[in-house]
Design a protein that fits this description.
Blueprint: H1 2-18, H2 24-37, E1 79-80, H3 81-104, H4 108-125, E2 132-136, H5 139-144, E3 158-161, H6 168-184, H7 190-209, H8 214-217, H9 222-225, H10 232-246, H11 249-258, H12 278-290, H13 298-316, H14 339-358, E4 363-365, E5 368-370, H15 372-386, H16 411-414, H17 429-435, H18 466-469, H19 473-486, E6 516-517, E7 521-523, E8 526-538, E9 541-552, E10 558-566, E11 572-573, E12 576-578, E13 581-583, E14 596-603, E15 609-617
Antiparallel strand pairs: 1-2, 2-3, 4-5, 6-8, 7-8, 8-9, 9-14, 10-13, 10-15, 11-14, 12-13
Helix pairs in contact: 2-19, 3-4, 3-6, 3-19, 4-6, 6-7, 6-10, 7-10, 10-11, 10-12, 12-13, 12-14, 14-15, 14-19
């Protein structure tokens, strides 16, 4: 008995040491490496995940548009727009809230690079104001094959939404991503920041005007990323981010006018992720309320905050309807990739804890008053579970700790690198040779957060166990901010310190009815008409948005066109550019007889001088 008691005492003394002291800075650095492993396109020279190489180099070519770049979502080789946009939004939110902490860890630059890899792709995917490409590749044919992304032979068809085939959820989430990212780049790259914000304005208008679910237009996505929640949450989410990015009253009014009708004040949520954004919207609007920005919308915004409080209380187990937890303390939503909900909920509790602290408020739950520190402690408990403080003593971040998944459901990591062995891996041969292997992955997918354990903390490290061993970008993205925050300690923190941009005088978007129209100019069969479609004031200067229409008045198609544009002092969209000459956009092979194309530009003076240099008729 004495020896047993001594052993128990020793175990109790050692327990706190074994389950404490995680290196959150190291975990943060590793989590960012995962995004480099998920890159599609031409990899940069400073690529740190060296077993990867260039891939998807013809994406979009069959549709006449350049869609090279972006991220593969998980363990396959498809680029799904909705989860990719959510990934970028959450990475940007992490930088906005915890940029100083990321800088202190030496990871701010890598975080910004990860965001820009996504936004550069979204710029390409949004070639026209009301066109957005939302998927490259086909999940059905992709899942039939097990190949490295560098040599995949699967279908790379591009799928898009437009006014005839709308997708308000997809366009809204992409608008949110672009708006959030514009805040990240505001100081370091103001020109790029303004470009992102312009895309965000256009995407929001597109989403709001042409309403519909994206998976009703891109039906191939239904099996993989079905939009169960619809699009109202994304419209509110995009409006909240556009308000935060622009300080424009229009978007605050949008939240106030539509919060009730669109479910922002009605849905009591117990999840937050790439599909359902309500808890995120409620958290952001609660922040606006605590910052004193609600104005006449205060009653509506208080209802938003009540729902944010409900979400936080349910996570803590102090609400009227609490979220299920495993015996080891991990919140549990579903068997397939449960960890996505763990990381996103942990992020919301982290920022909400800091919002409440900054406003000197407490959380009011049905079980009583809760201090903000309990929310941060909850987030820490979830992160610690992920990093190994769990009944299995397993780290669910690949490469962190001594016991982590070795057989990840991921094509690139499970097949020998093309740089090591260039022997072609066939579509079905990959399953026979590499997928079915019992050994560890030849390439370490450092930083990847896998799907995680089941409701009883059980986990099977098998490559065919995709529900538990497949990683995803949207698992990692929310964790950036949480890890940065946890690595910084608890002292001297205020979420309301970052400066906001000066308010604009009016909504900086195209006004549907043109105000000024310049005379039609014609050069042979090509006519050009320009009009001012919007104006706004920023920092004392008036900016104008010009819409220019090029009309083919010939009886034959216009095969090629070169335009000369002089006195242009701002960004331009809708044309291809070669030096000082402008031509038909890359997606348009010719301009049919009697048809027109539109391009837009923004600057702060009278219209640019647009003239036809040359043209060719078919």
């Amino acid at each position: 008995m004495g020896s047993v008691s001594a052993a128990l005492l020793l175990l109790l003394l050692c327990f706190p040491v074994a389950f404490s002291g995680h290196d959150y800075g190291q975990a943060l650095s590793k989590s960012l490496l995962f995004f480099e492993a998920q890159r599609s396109g031409v990899l940069p020279r400073n690529q740190r995940v060296t077993w990867r190489s260039h891939s998807g180099l013809t994406d979009g070519k069959s549709s006449g548009v350049n869609l090279v770049g972006g991220y593969y979502d998980a363990g396959d080789n498809v680029k799904f727009g909705l989860p990719m946009a959510f990934t970028v939004t959450m990475m940007a939110w992490s930088v906005i809230e915890y940029g100083d902490q990321l800088r202190a860890n030496g990871e701010l630059g890598n975080s910004i690079d990860a965001i820009k890899w996504g936004t550069d792709y979204f710029i390409k995917a949004h070639p026209e104001p009301n066109v957005l490409y939302g998927e490259v590749g086909d999940g059905n044919t992709d899942h039939y094959c097990w190949q490295r992304p560098e040599e995949m032979t699967t279908d790379r068809k591009a799928y898009r939404i437009d006014p005839s085939n709308p997708g308000s959820d997809l366009a809204g989430e992409t608008a949110a991503a672009m708006a959030a990212a514009s805040i990240v780049f505001r100081r370091s790259n103001p020109v790029y920041s303004r470009l992102l914000l312009t895309h965000a304005y256009q995407l929001f208008d597109f989403a709001d005007k042409y309403r519909g679910k994206y998976d009703s237009s891109i039906t191939i996505a239904q099996k993989y990323y079905r939009s169960v929640s619809g699009y109202n949450d994304e419209l509110l989410w995009a409006a909240a981010w556009l308000y935060q990015a622009s300080n424009n009253q229009f978007y605050l009014d949008y939240l106030g006018r539509n919060g009730d009708a669109m479910g922002g004040t009605g849905w009591s949520m117990t999840e937050f992720g790439w599909d359902v954004k309500y808890a995120g919207v409620q958290t952001l609007v609660a922040k606006f309320l605590m910052q004193g920005k609600a104005g006449r919308h205060a009653p509506v915004f208080r209802r938003f905050k009540d729902k944010a409080d409900f979400f936080m209380c349910s996570l803590l187990g102090k609400g009227s309807r609490n979220i299920q937890k495993t015996p080891g303390g991990l919140i549990f939503r579903q068997r397939w990739n449960n960890m996505q909900f763990v990381t996103s909920a942990s992020f919301l509790t982290t920022v909400y804890s800091d919002y409440l602290t900054s406003s000197r408020s407490n959380l009011r739950c049905s079980a009583g008053i809760v201090a903000p520190s309990q929310l941060l402690s909850f987030a820490k408990s979830q992160v610690d579970y992920i990093l190994g403080d769990n009944p299995r003593a397993t780290s669910y971040m690949v490469g962190y700790g001594n016991n982590f998944p070795q057989r990840v459901h991921h094509r690139g990591s499970s097949i020998v690198s093309v740089k090591v062995d260039r022997t072609f891996v066939t579509c079905r041969g990959g399953y026979a040779t590499w997928f079915s292997r019992k050994g560890s992955d030849p390439n370490l997918l450092t930083g990847a957060i896998v799907g995680g354990p089941d409701a009883y903390d059980n986990f099977a490290d098998r490559r065919d166990n995709y529900e538990q061993t497949e990683p995803a970008t949207y698992n990692n993205a929310p964790l950036l901010g949480v890890l940065a925050r946890l690595s910084s300690g608890h002292s001297g923190y205020s979420q309301f310190l970052p400066a906001v941009p000066a308010p604009v005088v009016r909504r900086p978007m195209p006004i549907r009815k043109p105000r000024v129209t310049t005379p039609v100019r014609a050069s042979g069969p090509v006519a050009i008409v320009q009009k001012v479609t919007g104006s706004w004031v920023s920092k004392g200067r008036t900016y104008y948005r010009y819409s220019t229409t090029v009309i083919n008045k010939s009886s034959r198609p216009l095969k090629s066109l070169n335009l000369s544009i002089k006195n242009l002092y701002g960004p331009i969209w809708g044309l291809s550019r070669s030096g000082n000459s402008f031509g038909l956009p890359s997606w348009m092979h010719s301009l049919p007889s009697g048809k027109s194309l539109e391009f837009v530009y923004i600057h702060s003076t009278s219209p640019a001088n647009v003239a036809v240099s040359s043209y060719t008729l078919a």
